[in-house]
């Protein structure tokens, strides 16, 4: 193979380029109509009522924590096997992150361990849960919702890996981010994700109050809704002269909260909207690639763990747990196969160690990290490329 094979890769078509160029030639580069179009299309895709486009997935998480009023001392539960932003959003607001171990079969936050933690403390000790649809596998949010209701907890679903993913309950498909069980859900449009807009993110919800709060926080905490204005009409006009019009002047706005500039641009939204049109095709390709990997390695002695093909899995990542992981990683790089490791357990990052977390606290997550490796997984991975990856993994272990 002459060309490198990364673990993930964006797919930009001529139609994508045309959509971006058209927007660049329009009257709006930001705060224009393409953003609302993208939000509406994405909400329809995941079957939620509302969607708010933002600058990236981390911004989405931060805004969710702000909208749910996470504050100093609030304890929030999440998984250690995720990108750091899933936990960091709580710290941005002064909250305390409580990591709970994963289920070693699914790699998802273990609901039984969550329940044990909640049962050991008085109700009210914890404020919320951030489960992660890790690698694209959908969390059973119906089960988490029952626990959340029992202990008066909110849920933020981190679905960055799983647009189009779902779990099933009572014969119905419950799509990640549909707002039925989680208060808020977030997505990322980083280039290696299912939908690429360069950078970008989305928040979905069915709660109109949270939706309006997010819109305000996304733009510096500013509102132009005159029904919510707090200052007087005369102040807004800048004089005390009588005026029969009950309307506030067109320029007037109020900053009512400490928000942020977490806006996405119109040309990013145009790219995201166009990519969304072929999201289902990308999912189909990912699932076919996953099936081929599974068949190749299902009986391999060097694979420590490999789950079967899971209905509803969005396959952002395809992960093996193997022996001699470091040697395999370096061997593959010699052939320009750039596998990746997802993830170093968050609780053992130096920042979180500094908050008291130690090795041995979460054994399932720590054991998983010792052998996990993410194989190339993206919709345009060719059959020839995948065969080459499989061949080199097999040759590495056969030669041992």
Mind sketching the topology for me?
Layout: E1 5-6, H1 14-24, H2 33-46, E2 50-54, H3 57-67, E3 75-78, H4 85-92, E4 96-99, H5 111-119, E5 126-130, H6 141-151, E6 154-158, E7 166-169, E8 172-175, E9 184-188, E10 201-205, H7 208-218, E11 222-223, H8 233-237, E12 254-255, H9 266-276, H10 279-297, E13 303-305, E14 318-322, H11 325-334, E15 337-338, H12 350-353, H13 363-369, E16 372-375, H14 383-398
Parallel strand pairs: 1-15, 3-4, 3-5, 5-6, 6-9
Antiparallel strand pairs: 2-10, 7-8, 9-10, 11-12, 13-14, 14-16
In short:
The protein has 400 residues and is an alpha/beta fold.
Write structural notes for this entry:
- With 400 residues, the protein is α/β, with parallel strands linked by helices.
- The protein folds into 3 domains: 5-221 and 258-278, Aspartate Aminotransferase, domain 2 (3-Layer(aba) Sandwich); 222-255, no CATH class; 280-398, Aspartate Aminotransferase, domain 1 (Alpha-Beta Complex).
- It contains 14 helices and 16 strands.
- The longest helix is centred in the C-terminal third of the chain and has 19 residues, at 279-297.
Give short descriptive properties of this protein.
400 residues; 7-stranded mixed β-sheet; alpha/beta; Aspartate Aminotransferase, domain 2; Aspartate Aminotransferase, domain 1; 3 domains
Task: Tell me which CATH architecture of the largest domain applies here.
Answer: 3-Layer(aba) Sandwich
* Approximate shape: globular
Residues in helix, % = 25-40%
Order of helices and strands: EHHEHEHEHEHEEEEEHEHEHHEEHEHHEH
Radius of gyration: 23 Å
Number of E-type strands? 16
């Amino acid at each position: 193979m002459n060309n490198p094979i990364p673990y993930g890769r964006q797919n930009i078509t001529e139609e994508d380029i045309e959509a971006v160029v058209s927007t660049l030639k329009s009257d709006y580069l930001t705060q224009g109509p393409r953003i609302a179009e993208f939000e509406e299309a994405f909400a329809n895709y995941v079957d939620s009522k509302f969607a708010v486009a933002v600058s990236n997935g981390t911004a989405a998480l931060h805004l969710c924590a702000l909208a749910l009023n996470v504050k100093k001392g609030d304890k929030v539960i999440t998984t250690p096997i995720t990108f750091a932003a899933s936990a960091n959003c709580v710290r941005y607001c002064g909250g305390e992150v409580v990591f709970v171990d994963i289920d070693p079969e699914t790699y998802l936050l273990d609901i039984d361990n969550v329940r044990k933690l909640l049962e050991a403390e008085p109700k009210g000790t914890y404020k919320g849960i951030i489960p992660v649809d890790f690698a694209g596998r959908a969390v059973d949010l119906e089960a988490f919702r029952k626990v959340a209701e029992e202990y008066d907890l909110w849920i933020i679903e981190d679905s960055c890996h799983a647009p189009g993913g779902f779990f099933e309950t009572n014969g119905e498909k419950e799509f990640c981010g549909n707002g039925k069980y989680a208060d808020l859900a977030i997505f990322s449009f980083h280039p290696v994700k299912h939908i690429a807009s360069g950078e970008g993110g989305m928040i979905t919800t069915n709660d109109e109050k949270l939706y309006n709060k997010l819109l305000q926080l996304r733009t510096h905490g500013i509102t132009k809704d005159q029904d919510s204005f707090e200052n007087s009409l005369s102040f807004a006009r800048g004089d005390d002269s009588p005026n029969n019009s009950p309307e506030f002047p067109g320029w007037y706005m109020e900053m009512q909260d400490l928000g942020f500039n977490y806006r996405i641009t119109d040309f990013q939204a145009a790219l995201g909207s166009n990519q969304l049109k072929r999201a289902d095709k990308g999912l189909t390709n990912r699932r076919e690639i996953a099936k081929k990997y599974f068949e190749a390695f299902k009986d391999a002695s060097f694979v420590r763990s490999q789950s079967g093909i899971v209905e509803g899995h969005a396959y952002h990542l395809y992960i093996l747990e193997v022996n001699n992981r470091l040697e395999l990683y370096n061997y593959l790089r010699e052939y320009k196969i750039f596998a990746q490791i997802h993830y170093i357990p968050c609780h053992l990052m130096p920042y979180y160690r500094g908050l008291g977390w130690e090795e041995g606290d979460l054994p399932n997550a720590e054991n998983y990290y010792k052998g996990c490796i993410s194989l190339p997984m993206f919709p345009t991975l060719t059959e020839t490329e995948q065969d080459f990856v499989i061949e080199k993994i097999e040759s590495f272990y056969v030669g041992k």
